[in-house]
TrEMBL record:
This is ATP-binding cassette domain-containing protein. Residues 296-344 are annotated as: Disordered. Pfam families: ABC_tran. PROSITE patterns: ABC_TRANSPORTER_2. InterPro entries: AAA+_ATPase, ABC_transporter-like_ATP-bd, P-loop_NTPase. Residues 319-338 have a biased composition (Low complexity). The keyword Transport applies. Residues 7-231 form the ABC transporter domain. GO terms for molecular function: ATP binding; ATP hydrolysis activity.
Amino acid sequence: MPKGLPIEVRGLTKRFGDVTAVEQLSFTVQPGRVTGFLGPNGAGKTTTLRVLLGLVRPTAGTATIGGVPYAKLERPLEAVGASLDATFHPGRTARDHLKVYATAAGIAKPRIGEVLELTGIQSVADRRVGGYSLGMRQRLALAFTLLGDPGVLILDEPINGLDPEGIRWIRGFLQLLARDGRTVLVSSHLLSEVQQSVDDVVIISKGRLVRTGTLSSLELDSAPQSIVDSPDRDAAAAALTAAGLRFAPGRNGFIVDERDPAKVGAALAAAGVGVSLLHRLRSGLEDSFLQLVGESDGSANGGTPAPASEATVAHDGPAAETSAEAPPAVASEPPAESTEGKDA
Ligand SMILES: Nc1ncnc2c1ncn2[C@@H]1O[C@H](COP(=O)(O)OP(=O)(O)OP(=O)(O)O)[C@@H](O)[C@H]1O
């Protein structure tokens, strides 16, 4: 069984010349859970992931997997699978790409068939990647990350470009990977894209942490209302009034000024009124996210101010000015020979 390891980012700062891509960033990603790493374009997500994978040297701070930097992992390909900058030669097939990589990485051949099946691209595995849709390429990138059967998965925008069926599939798949104990970190610039598959969120904006915690805590903060309906609306209205709950009629029932649906349900149950619909109003979640990332100082409405960084460790080396300073030793990245011809 692959071993999930915690990911820990502490006091991470990365500057590219005058540009501060990430500043004083600290967060932890736990095994056995899917964590959404969220922020608008340019927020610093990719830079953080590149530091985590040893592809970029931090200006200050640390990023570790299982307590050590990526470069110090004993068996990195079995520990971590990452889909960063995955590009494929359009003239080669998916199976070929995987074969080349598996051979170079010393991964047994039967694993190729397994990952093709896991990602649902076995039927197109012998077709040239140039004819693949973006969604099929996303699945191939995921197949690369799974080759070493790693306990830690770091996926950069894996949902981008998937069709609705693909989105449904990947949401369930990410959850399955985490339920086996893996650490699953998924970046996205849209909360709505990942909200059905993540347990935890790390939200950044302009290089700084604005929020970290469970998705449900964010939902609670962003949805101060519940929605309830009953076959007997008059009785439901009377029960809500009797319980001292304020409410207004909505499209699908009553919108109640109570963030905990259980309290609303209890009010109706106490009055012997049947419930046909009861849930937290979710519409505020994306708004709350946008408010959070619209501010960089952590004081946005509905959010918990970001904690002060827990550690700031100056790095020995100079800040890197480009992102190509270290060789990519990442499970998902095909060897150089198969990346020459980028897809158009
Ligand atoms: N190699 C680099 N040289 C100079 N600036 C860089 C470099 N890499 C990133 N940046 C800058 O750092 C900031 C953060 O970029 P980053 O790509 O990490 O954000 P992101 O959240 O991943 O956004 P996106 O979703 O658009 O990729 C941006 O202002 C970007 O222009």
